[in-house]
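Question (not urgent): is this output format expected?
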Amino acid sequence: MTDATLPTDEGADAAVAARDIAEVPAVEVITTAAVHLMSAAAVKCGLAPDTAEAKGADLTDLDEARRLITALAGLVVAAAPEIGNQHARALRDGLRSLQLAFREASPYPDAPGEGPGEALTGPVS
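Got this back:
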C-alpha cells in the first residue's frame, strides 16, 4: 500500500464530520451561519462587552461591519422562504437591529436605503 491509500485519522475525522453534518437540518445550518454573521457584525459595530483586555468599542470596524451585515442580509432574504416564517422573523429582527446599530455607530450615517444590506431589505428606520 502507498501512503495515499492508507487510512488516516484525518480522513476518518472528515468522514465522521460529514456524517454529523448530514444529520443537521438545513434550517439549523442556515440559522447557525446567520448567528455567526450577527455576532461578528455586532462586535464590528462596537457592541462587544468590555473586558479586562479591551473595551468593546475598541473593536469597532465599520468597514468590516458593513460587509458582514450585507452578507447577512443576502442570507436572510434568500433563505427566508426556505426556513419558514418563525425562523426568518427572528433573523430579520436581528438584521434590523444590526442595521440600526451600524447607523448609530457611523459618524456619517448613510442616506436611507444606502446602509449595509438595505439594497436587499429596503430602507431601515
